[in-house]
Design goal:
Blueprint lengths: L1 H26 L7 H4 L12
Length: about 50
């Protein structure tokens, strides 16, 4: 019986984690991790040297 409870708790945690990831991807928050697309990182704002 204890194993079943632990499995259900882990399944709920995984469910809510996946749900949170899906919601954050749909919301398109301020940072997607792709600095080339937004130019928000300091590394992409520097001018390229010829």
């Amino acid at each position: 019986m204890g194993n079943l409870i632990v499995i259900l708790i882990i399944a709920l945690v995984v469910f809510f984690a996946v749900r949170s990831i899906i919601k954050s991807r749909k919301a398109k928050g301020p940072c997607t991790g792709n600095c080339a697309s937004c130019g928000g990182c300091s590394g992409t704002s520097k001018a390229k040297k010829p």
